[in-house]
Design brief:
This protein has two domains: 231 residues, no CATH class; 81 residues, Arc Repressor Mutant, subunit A (Orthogonal Bundle), CATH 1.10.10. The protein is an alpha/beta fold. 48% of the residues lie in helices and 13% in strands.
Length: 325
């Protein structure tokens, strides 16, 4: 068990961010042992096939994401510096990692060891540039096709937790991060198999990063070089790769099939583009239906960076429940 003590300053500096770079690292972990991650089998099967067909040698990534008790070196996926999901910016930070930090991370007793990591340790500048190129290639092959849906789920989780904070305060926010995380007064208790002890945030706050591929665990990073970070599974991740639910026919008879379908799809927040892809409708048609649903008080819209996320209102939830949707 890891105990993380908060001060008032830490609470004031706690924030959320998304990290495409971390999803690459966590995705590699899933691909190495797909049988241990049946929830993500639809993704891992397709990603493994695409990677094999591409001929990409991603063994260095596999080496840098070792099996426990060896640890993933922190420099491989440093905490994001902005709340906007930007792989290019994260890779720029990776490339700029001080060489001595790479050497130190790969020299510890729990560090991964292989011929490839030895070469990275011997020449960090060159190795970091090659690692960034490898991550970018891996992303395009294995994750980019799925990122819009993943991003909607992650941003929807942040939106949900922002609402918890607005309605119930920090106690509810920090007490709702998963079964392995509990909050009591000024301390966050994180269930870990290999990390134990007490840590102080030191006024830096906690960075909360929802992550698709960590489920059902949580991952933490508390080191002197970066803002303390907790990576946790988002709400709705168990349904991420499933086929969508059946159309609520009773509701469709009242509001129309297209609008009933959109309400059913909004079990997690989504953009117009996401909804168009899922339903097979045009983006323009989806936008018109969403506008009508919004005027009727069944849908709300929230901006998240460059995107607008649509969510069901309580009135829509009531309608769907009454219709058996």
């Amino acid at each position: 068990m890891l105990d993380v003590a908060f001060s008032l300053r830490d609470l004031a500096r706690t924030r959320f961010a998304l990290s495409p770079l971390w999803e690459v690292v966590a995705g590699v972990r899933v691909l190495k042992h797909p049988a241990e991650h049946p929830l993500h089998r639809p993704w891992s099967t397709q990603a493994a096939r695409r990677l094999a067909g591409s001929g990409l040698d991603w063994q260095l990534l596999a080496d840098l994401v070792p099996d426990p008790p060896r640890a993933i070196p922190a420099f491989v996926a440093p905490p994001p510096t902005t709340s906007v999901a930007d792989l290019g910016l994260e890779l720029a930070v990776l490339r700029a990692t001080p060489p001595e930090r790479v050497t130190e991370s790969l020299a510890g007793p729990r560090a991964p060891r292989s011929a490839r990591t030895d070469r990275l340790r011997a020449d960090p500048r060159r190795g970091l540039a090659e690692l960034a190129e490898l991550i970018e290639a891996f992303w395009e092959i294995a994750l980019a096709p799925h990122w819009p849906r993943m991003r909607s789920l992650l941003e929807g989780d942040v939106l949900h937790r922002a609402r918890l904070f607005a309605e119930h305060g920090a106690d509810r926010l920090l007490g709702d991060l998963g079964s392995d995380v509990t909050w009591d007064e000024d301390t966050l208790y994180v269930g870990h198999r290999y990390v134990r002890g007490s840590r102080q945030l030191g006024g830096r706050g906690l960075l909360l990063v929802p992550s698709v591929f960590v489920w059902p665990q949580v991952f933490s990073l508390i080191t002197p070089h970066w803002q303390p970070t907790l990576r946790y599974p988002p709400r709705g991740v168990a349904t991420l790769w499933e086929r969508r639910s059946a159309l609520p026919e009773a509701l469709a008879a009242v509001v129309g099939r297209s609008r009933a379908r959109l309400l059913a799809e909004l079990d997690t927040p989504a953009t117009t583009t996401d909804l168009a892809r899922r339903t097979g409708a045009t983006a323009g048609g989806v936008s018109q239906h969403l506008s009508a649903l919004r005027r009727a008080g069944l849908v709300d819209a929230h901006r998240s960076g460059r995107y607008v996320l649509y969510v069901r209102t309580e009135a829509a939830e009531t309608l769907l429940a009454a219709a058996g949707g």
